[in-house]
Amino acid sequence: MTQVRTSIVILAATLALTVFMTSLVLENRGGRANTARARIGGLDAIQNNQHLFPGRYGLTPQTAVTTPRADGAETKVNELLVQAQRFCDAGNLEGAAELLRAALKVDPDHVVVLDALGATCFALHQYAEAETLLRRVIEQRPDPDNLCRMRLGVAEMRQGKYGPALDNFKLVLQHDPTDGSVHFALACVFARLGETDRALYHLELAYAQMGPTVLAHISDPLLDSLRQTRKFQQIVDSARRQCRNTTVSATAPRVQPGK
Measured at the alpha carbon of residue 152, what is the angle toward residues 150 and 158, in degrees to the nearest 5? Predict the structure, then answer.
């Protein structure tokens, strides 16, 4: 039992230290091109969050995912979906995307294929295609899930379409005001639009919800206009202190009762 507790303590300390060091590396990494690649995708990664494609639809070779058709198209689409899921499980997103595109040729309005391909393109940072696909999903679903709308908003934001992105983020916020990722996204958009006070307001709310993990995303280039403000530095300093305190508490020896 003592060995198990020790292992847990070491693991917690390692994770906390990793988050802290990641933020330092991202903010101090040399080279504009490398920095941009490191920064972009921070917020995007929040939207992937293990829900990209694997297991989301529970697909199996025997699962019918379309309305039965006499031409057997539903069987072909289902087979391609299952294969795409296997490719995605194996980390081959490019291969999964090609299979999903093939499925879409068989059934161009298949909402599951549209959603899966949109999510896959989003993960590949193919934002223009992701935007088109995710818009079609939302058109077919009167009440799309927040994850789909968030991906659409981020895809728009990464293409500089800040107005449409803002509209989508606000809709997500109505459904879940405590979602730290949407507050972070709003901070990015408002910062880019020059609305510093509103950007800092949402960044503070993002930190309140996300805690020190916000450090892994704070280097997003859309926040560059905020970096010299006092409030931005306060948020970063507070997150770093919280991270250090977590590291210290995780590594501190535990006193056994009666000793």
Answer: 100
